[in-house]
Design brief:
By secondary structure, the chain is α+β, with helices and mostly antiparallel strands. The protein is built from four helices and 13 strands. It has helices spanning 3-18, 71-77, 142-145, 151-168; strands spanning 34-42, 45-57, 60-69, 80-89, 95-106, 109-121, 124-129, 171-177, 182-189, 199-210, 227-234, 241-248, 251-260. A 13-stranded antiparallel β-sheet has the order 7-6-5-4-3-2-1-13-12-11-10-9-8. The longest helix is centred in the middle third of the chain and has 18 residues, at 151-168. It is globular, with a radius of gyration of 18 Å.
């Protein structure tokens, strides 16, 4: 496969991993359903459209994301994905996932599924594959699947971590398992240049733990180098994400908030 085409194929995969941080802080303090639209640009060109649907049901949560590539990434990858996570809010503003399902198309692979159930065992909660999972690679060792969150449940914990960091300072770490790879989200809020700023700048690092360098990937060798993410959120109780920038193949992937939807029906996927 030519080098540029391979890079574009990997970009489709990278979008799925990079976009998990965009939903951080989207949920308001009170129970409310939210649907928001984002646009992604790679090297200044349209790369994807993203829809986030978040539902807070008392102690539980149900988060969904839809990603559809555009432009050159769509031409070479035909990548399209939806993901759903359900669980409960834990003490300390974290998350306790129950179920995660990601369905995606990539090139000639259609209706591929990453499906996980989270099972309570001695020592913590462990991610196990569900019967409808279509992954071809064996799962990582249990040690890497224990006490880690699926990507969308990591969103719930990231929101709580940002609130605590804003109030008390310090850094945070969130363990994530996406069904093939185990990585950590490391982060801290950067100092404000002006006290009157209505936004917060957050520096995140995606640090590879296991499943990289081809160990568990079916789509090339994922880069195991730490990946920096610049996140901008509103400085209020909602911490609304405004933009995110992450380098992908030495060029910036920029994701920007576009608008809210009055209802999911007003912004059909």
């Amino acid at each position: 496969m030519p080098r540029r085409r391979l890079d574009l194929v990997r970009l489709g995969c990278a979008l799925g991993a990079a976009l998990i941080v965009m939903a951080a802080g989207m949920r308001p303090a009170s129970a409310e359903d939210i649907t928001a639209v984002y646009s992604a640009f790679w090297a200044g060109l349209p790369a994807a459209e993203i829809r986030l649907k978040l539902r807070d049901d008392g102690p539980g949560y149900r988060d969904e994301i839809e990603i559809a590539t555009q432009g050159l990434p769509q031409l070479f990858t035909h990548f399209r994905a939806t993901a759903l996570a359900e669980g409960h809010h834990a003490l300390g503003q974290g998350a306790e996932p129950a179920h995660y399902l990601a369905v995606y198309d990539l090139r000639k692979r259609h209706d591929r599924r990453i499906s996980m159930q989270f099972v309570d065992r001695i020592g913590g909660r462990t991610a196990e594959r569900s019967p409808d999972d279509t992954s071809r690679k064996p799962p990582l060792a249990e040690a890497y699947r224990k006490n880690a969150l699926d990507p969308l449940s990591a969103v719930e914990s990231l929101r709580g971590a940002l609130r605590i960091a804003r109030a008390r300072g310090g850094s945070f770490s969130i363990p994530v398992y996406d069904g093939a790879r185990r990585f950590d989200i490391l982060g801290h809020i950067l100092p404000k240049k002006d006290a009157s700023e209505g936004t917060l700048r957050v520096e995140l690092t995606l640090r590879a733990i296991a499943g990289f360098k081809g160990e568990s990937s079916e789509d090339g060798d994922p880069d195991d180098a730490p990946r920096k993410v610049d996140l901008l959120v509103t400085d209020d109780g909602r911490m609304m994400p405004l933009s995110m920038t992450v380098p992908v193949f030495f060029m910036p992937l920029v994701i920007q908030f576009v608008h809210f939807c009055a209802s999911p029906e007003a912004c059909p996927g």
